[in-house]
Amino acid sequence: MFMKKFISVISILTVGFLSACSEQKFPVTFHLEAPPSDSGKFTFYHHGVCYSKAPFFSHNQIDSYYSFPAGDNTYGIVVIAKKGYAPRIEAMTEENKGKKILPVVNGHTMQPMQIYDRPITGGKLAILGGFSPADLKEMSEFISPKDEKREEPILKMAPYTRPLLEKEDPNDKKAEQKESTSKSSDAKVIRKRRGRI
């Protein structure tokens, strides 16, 4: 009896631990442009360009970041890869010269980057803008700043700014789409009925 209870408790703790580990509070991912696809199983479209759903680089491989002022009064960031991941970035961008990279932060698609005629070396990838100090403050709890003193003045502004990259709830999106579809279909029915009258 004791052993059964013990095993049950261990199972619950293990499941809780694994789910906590798998959940990322402020996910940052980078997606490569992919060949056009109609299936939507492994790809998605953004502004008419097809991208792979599977990121080639993500927050799990990020060691640290530093920010910089962007042209639209927001901040951009440069993320620095953990040791051993720089060759992967170089190899993937070498294979995909001429294509685009789409960063996704907390469910928000950011400004795409173009890979030109050279691969990206040095293990650094940029997101060109879109962060407020509040966003950077939240992100800094999960991805360490490269230089804390350098980032300190920006992070101190966090309480006085609003987040631009709050996590989007897919369920809310589905509800909005459903409501929008419902309104659209109702409007069509009304138009048809008016036409008959």
Would you mind describing this structure in some detail?
The protein is α+β, with helices and mostly antiparallel strands and 197 residues long. Helix content is 38%, strand content 25%. The protein is built from five helices and eleven strands; from the N terminus they run H-E-E-E-E-E-E-H-E-E-E-E-H-E-H-H. Strands 1, 4, 7, 8 and 9 form a five-stranded antiparallel β-sheet that branches. The longest helix has 27 residues, at 170-196. It is globular, with a radius of gyration of 22 Å. The protein starts with a helix and ends with a helix.
Q: Compute the number of strand runs.
A: 11
Termini separation comes to 75 Å
Mean pLDDT: 81
- Structural class call reads alpha+beta
Catalogue the unreliable spans.
Answer: 1-22, 180-197
Shape: globular
Helix content: 25-40%
The helix tally amounts to 5
Helix and strand run: HEEEEEEHEEEEHEHH
Beta-strand residue percentage: 25-35%
Give the radius of gyration.
Answer: 22 Å
Largest sheet: 5 strands, antiparallel
What's the gist of this structure?
Helices cover 38% and strands 25% of the residues.
Task: Give the topology, please.
Layout: H1 2-22, E1 28-32, E2 43-46, E3 49-52, E4 57-58, E5 62-69, E6 75-81, H2 86-95, E7 100-105, E8 108-109, E9 113-114, E10 124-131, H3 133-140, E11 144-145, H4 148-155, H5 170-196
Parallel strand pairs: 5-11
Antiparallel strand pairs: 1-4, 1-7, 2-3, 5-6, 6-10, 7-8, 7-9
